[in-house]
Design a protein that fits this description.
The protein is α+β, with helices and mostly antiparallel strands. 36% of the residues lie in helices and 21% in strands. The chain has six domains: 60 residues, Helix hairpin bin (Helix Hairpins), CATH 1.10.287; 227 residues, 2-Layer Sandwich (D-amino Acid Aminotransferase, Chain A, domain 1), CATH 3.30.470.30; 104 residues, OB fold (Dihydrolipoamide Acetyltransferase, E2P); 73 residues, Orthogonal Bundle (DNA polymerase, domain 1), CATH 1.10.150; 76 residues, DNA polymerase, domain 1; 90 residues, BRCT domain (Rossmann fold). Strands 14, 15, 16, 17, 18, 19 and 20 form a seven-stranded antiparallel sheet that branches. The chain has a five-stranded mixed sheet with strand order 3-13-12-4-11. Strands 6-5-9-10 form a four-stranded antiparallel sheet.
């Protein structure tokens, strides 16, 4: 059977190439007699084995054009894998068990379903809970069996991929360099999710099986390797794998790593899966990861360079961050020359010193970080004076982390950064007050506290005469300030710059205290901790800010200048997203902009954050399969990625669920 399947693949490829040469390129690779002979051989083998590959010349190709890809929920969530970069972890994870080590392919995960020997459905992974139905496109993949010998229901998972060589060939046909595809994964994602299956067929997408989900009535002798062999006997290409144990897994990983450079299929690591099916399934899963498999990620790209200096960068909170400045190096395709060290504890642990030989990398392929210090001289002098105002500095320790602070309350850096935040788009949104302009106004003594911004007309003559200003610029600034005086309480609270209180937390606080500001600033520690998203650090920061009489006086004078729009608190009946945190990224289609979507989420009791973290409930991105940094982070943390349509479905289901729950409660109360 194995030899017959191999011959089917060989004949399909050979005849397809011959047909393309004859009909599209007006040249012959073989005579008509030879073609007919091979065609008859292929047709006979397909009938004998029951295996027919997509692209087979024996099949009439019927491409399909759709208006949109339908969505479908998976029967069980498709979880991400836990990860490690240490090969020793793999040996320890295996223990006394045998495992299958395979490539971790970098494409788009697809679920195929066969019934009565025919491909009936193909669905993308999507966000792990809801995927897109791409059955017509899967039929156009270059190697997917359209018919198989097995007549029961078969469900399997695999990766849709485009090889590096095909990727290069497709890009070479595109004359405009800016229009070329960035990498094979992006090209594959776009090809698989096409609305016209003919375009998919032109991209030579391949399917590599990596998991058998269901095949009733087949005895696999409790071995994953038997499942893989059986899938191959049905005509599927299975991801390359080998059997390992704790003693040989290191050598096997080394063997894979030595082949990375020449391997034609995109891969971003390896996968280790327990061979014993029952044992692996008995381990269950965590909320984020199945326990029967683990991913091995190749180590980050690391470069050696020389540390030239430590730059000290003050912030609006007084915190002075050490920043490593080093000789420029190429990392993940860009040139970098600086990396934040975050605090003194990290700097001291690395024993940094000017002239040290260091290694650097990009965390999550984005943020430059120091990996190690090879010489560890420790010759960094912690400044005793703020580099901006010259005021005294002090080292403060919180939760075993030592950080440097400027103690001068009138430090220009604090003022400029604080006012920059206050007039920013998400706070008071004062157009015309850039950081450079604020620096001029503060330096001239026009602004000492937030309320002073609303009295700049007192300095009209001086402002009009300033370089870069004039009467028109002044008039525009005054109009912007007047407009900014009509605002909302969450914007004001965010603009105050209380450590850790972002706009999302400000909105949560307002809703919790029903927009009663006096109740908010006099809130107890326990009341604050009872708010979703407010922990010990934020609660203390809030209480410390309002324990200062000077701060309260400034806030009172500010509020006297403002007209706050009345906002209604979200009722329990509407708060279907209470306790949920969303992150929005990418372009939107159904909503006019991100603010509109954010407003809807918040009107339903939810919270919107700017970055993906372990606290994120959902990431909203219409390009659910993209390789963006937020998508990567969400996948690593097992966070569902929703399109706008997915979000709309989620909202409807949550409202239905809450409505039913309330109806049940009313019935119980009536009884």
């Amino acid at each position: 059977m194995e030899e017959k399947i191999r011959r089917i693949k060989e004949l399909t490829a050979l005849l397809t190439e011959a047909g393309k040469a004859y009909y599209q390129e007006s040249r012959e690779l073989m005579s008509n007699y030879q073609y007919d002979q091979l065609y008859d051989e292929l047709a006979g083998l397909e009938k004998e084995t029951g295996v027919i590959l997509s692209g087979s010349p024996t099949q009439k190709v019927g491409y399909e054009v759709l208006s949109e890809l339908p969505k479908e929920a998976h029967e069980s969530p498709m979880l991400s894998l836990d990860k490690t970069k240490d090969v020793e972890d793999l040996a320890q994870w295996l223990g006394d068990q045998a495992g299958l080590l395979s490539w971790k392919l970098d494409g788009l995960t697809i679920v195929l379903t066969y019934e009565n020997g025919s491909l009936v459905k193909a669905v993308t992974r999507g966000n792990g809970e809801i995927g897109e139905v791409i059955t017509s496109n899967a039929r156009a993949f270059s190697n997917v069996p359209l018919s198989i010998a097995y007549k029961g229901q078969l469900v399997l998972r695999g990766e849709a991929v485009i090889s590096y060589s095909d990727f290069k060939a497709i890009n070479q046909e595109i004359q405009d360099g800016d229009a070329r595809y960035k990498n094979p994964r992006n090209l594959c994602s776009g090809s698989v999710r096409q609305l016209n299956s003919q375009i998919t067929a032109q991209r030579n997408v391949k399917f590599m099986a990596f998991a058998l989900v269901k095949a009733d009535g087949v005895d696999f002798h409790n071995r994953r390797r038997e499942q893989f062999a059986w899938l191959e006997s049905q005509g599927f290409e299975v991801v390359e794998h080998c059997l390992v144990d704790k003693d040989c897994v290191r050598e096997a990983v080394k063997g894979f790593s030595e082949r990375i450079e020449g391997y034609d299929i995109p891969s971003d690591g390896l996968v280790l899966l327990f061979d014993d099916i029952a044992y692996g399934e008995s381990l269950g899963r965590t909320a984020k990861f199945p326990r029967n498999a683990i991913a091995f990620k190749w180590a980050d790209e690391v470069r050696a360079t020389r540390l030239t200096m430590i730059e000290w960068s003050p912030s609006r909170t007084g915190l002075i961050n050490p920043v490593a400045i080093f000789e420029p190096v190429e990392l993940e395709g860009t040139t970098v020359s600086r990396a934040s060290v975050h605090n003194i504890s990290i700097m001291e642990a690395l024993k940094l010193g000017e002239g040290d030989e260091i290694t650097v990398y990009k965390a999550n392929m984005i943020i430059p970080q120091i990996a190690d210090n090879l010489t560890r001289s420790g010759k960094v002098q912690i400044p005793k004076h703020c580099p901006v105002c010259g005021g005294d500095t002090e080292i403060r320790q919180m939760d075993e982390v030592r950080s440097l602070y400027c103690t001068n309350p009138d430090c220009q850096a604090k003022k400029i950064k604080s006012f920059t935040l206050f007039v920013s788009r998400d706070a008071l949104n004062v157009d015309g007050l850039s950081e450079a302009t604020l620096e001029k106004f503060i330096g001239a003594g026009f602004i000492h506290e937030f309320s002073d911004i609303f009295h700049l007309e007192q300095h009209q003559e001086a402002i009009v005469e300033m370089e870069g200003f004039g009467q028109k610029s002044y008039d525009n600034l005054m109009a912007s300030i007047k407009k900014a005086s009509h605002t909302t309480l969450p914007r004001v609270i965010y603009g105050l710059g209380i450590a850790g209180i972002g706009l999302a937390n400000a909105k949560v606080l307002c809703r919790k205290f029903r927009f009663d500001f006096d109740a908010m600033r006099h809130a107890s520690y326990e009341e604050l901790l009872d708010i979703d998203g407010i922990g010990d650090v934020l609660a203390k920061a809030w209480m410390d800010y309002f324990a200062d009489g000077k701060n309260n006086g400034q806030v009172d004078r500010l509020l006297a200048e403002l007209e706050l729009k009345k906002e209604e608190a979200v009722s329990e009946e509407e708060a279907v997203f209470a306790g949920k945190t969303f992150v929005i990224t990418g372009s939107l289609e159904k909503f006019s902009n991100r603010k509109a979507l954010q407003a809807l989420i918040e009107s339903k009791g939810g919270k919107v954050s700017g970055s993906v973290s372990a606290k994120t409930s959902y990431l909203i991105n219409n390009d659910t399969a993209s390789n963006s940094s937020k998508n990567k982070k969400a996948k690593e943390l097992g966070i569902p990625i929703l399109s706008e349509e997915d979000f709309t479905m989620l909202l409807a289901s949550e409202e239905e669920r809450l409505w039913q729950a309330q109806g049940t409660e009313e019935e119980e109360n009536a009884d």
